[in-house]
Design a protein that fits this description.
Blueprint: E1 2-7, E2 10-13, E3 18-26, E4 33-39, E5 46-52, E6 58-60, E7 68-72, E8 77-82, E9 91-97, E10 100-101, E11 105-110
Parallel strand pairs: 2-11
Antiparallel strand pairs: 1-3, 3-8, 4-5, 4-9, 5-6, 7-8, 9-10, 9-11
Length: about 110
């Protein structure tokens, strides 16, 4: 089983930047994809970005393309660099890997 610990998040003005981290530990199978999701109040959880653990290829939701960058390091940590943030990016952000969810991070973008 894998364990996920998220860090980062917070309050930022529109146009600002934030960086989220998700550290994975435990039994990691390199063929899987690690993903970021978010859930805004009253809305369903939606996919934001993902990275293939072994080859590093990435994918993004259309709403964040060109603004968010998903990456990982050799210490089993995935990152989400969020630039040009908009009020509609306000949500709780979750990482997801091998059937496990992170604890969630609140991101609030003020206008």
């Amino acid at each position: 089983q894998v364990q996920l610990v998220e860090s980062g998040g917070g309050l930022v003005q529109a146009g600002g930047s934030l960086k989220l981290s998700c550290a994975a530990s435990g039994r990691i199978f390199s063929g899987n994809m690690m993903r970021w999701f978010r859930q805004a109040p009253g809305k369903e959880r939606e996919f934001v970005a993902g990275i293939a653990w072994n080859v590093g290829s990435t994918s993004y939701a259309d709403s964040v393309k060109g603004r968010f960058t998903c990456s990982r390091d050799s210490a089993n940590t995935m990152y989400l660099q969020m630039n040009s943030l908009k009020p509609e990016d306000t949500a709780v952000y979750y990482c997801y890997f091998q059937g496990t969810w992170g604890q969630g991070l609140q991101v609030t973008v003020s206008s």
